[in-house]
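ARCHIVE CARD
SHELF: 3
SLOT: left
DATA:
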Amino acid sequence: QLKLEDYKDRLKKGEALNQDQLEAVEKYDEVVHNLEFAKELQKTFSGLSQDLLKAQKKAQRRESLLKLEAEKKKLRTILQVQYVLQNFSQEHVQKDFKGGVNGAIYLPSKELDYLIRFAKLTCPERNENL
């Protein structure tokens, strides 16, 4: 652009320019327009790039939160199952299931024993002093 401006100034001063220089001066406005268009295009691409980066970061945060929530849900389910299984170690609960009373379904002694053993395998003993 500076070279074209120099040619334009030289032409105004009355200097003789060769054919290539004259053609370049004739296209000065077109070159300036194309440069301005290129600058605007670069700004647009830069803005789009920033928007894309923001969207990617937002999606990553959302994905991380979803994974965390899924892990929390799994842990809640495990804790709920452990709580239910731990109750099978209490004698009054066992009596309720053996008799099918107090809202408990009837469980044969063999099945109840399986649940009690399963509870001992899957539910660690708690130290109440901690």
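SLOT: right
DATA:
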Amino acid sequence: PAGTVPRRRPPRSDMGRAVTLLLLLLALLAAPARAEGGAAAEEVKIEVLHLPEACSPKSKKGDLLNAHYDGFLASDGSKFYCSRTQNEGHPKWFVLGVGQVIKGLDIAMMSMCPGEKRKVIIPPSLAYGQQGYAQGKIPPNATLIFEIELYAVNKGPRSVEAFNQIDKDSDKKLSELEISQYLKEEFARDGKKRHPSVHDEILADIFKKNDHDGDGFISAKEYNVYQHDEL
């Protein structure tokens, strides 16, 4: 892309508690990502533009990533997205592999290390498909190109560590009381004043979207602890 953007220093791993809380709640409220059918014949093409000598840790499903990326239409090279123009230019935080970004980016950013840069080509079936995304100025059946720079790889909120932190009695399932207490503790650390109804609404949403069998508990499977982790 035209123009030079000053390189940002990689964010420190000890993120602000407000950011951690926001991402935890986002991940708890998000439904587990579903695999899309009919895309087996098409793949994401990855070109590594820069690989640092020290490549650790490598990103995996469930990790919390911090990255900048620019998106272009393969058809004419026009830019449709630039993370540097969003959120006052701060790199984006998201959990890898859970559908917080398009499936092609979830695939493209696997096994990536902090400081690495990649150029990736994503077919329509792993992007916005036949529908396109009018709001993002992406036409139907568009092949997309992204230039990505990854800054940080951290343990994500769906990790075993996060599950065990909430699971006070270590019975491998999360009760309404345990999650309620965890929310209260995080709200207290965050320090922001909230109406009591906010706590109740978030708690109700968490169980509505995660307690699939309706037994009043969120199991490790329902919590979606990833396959690389073991309880």
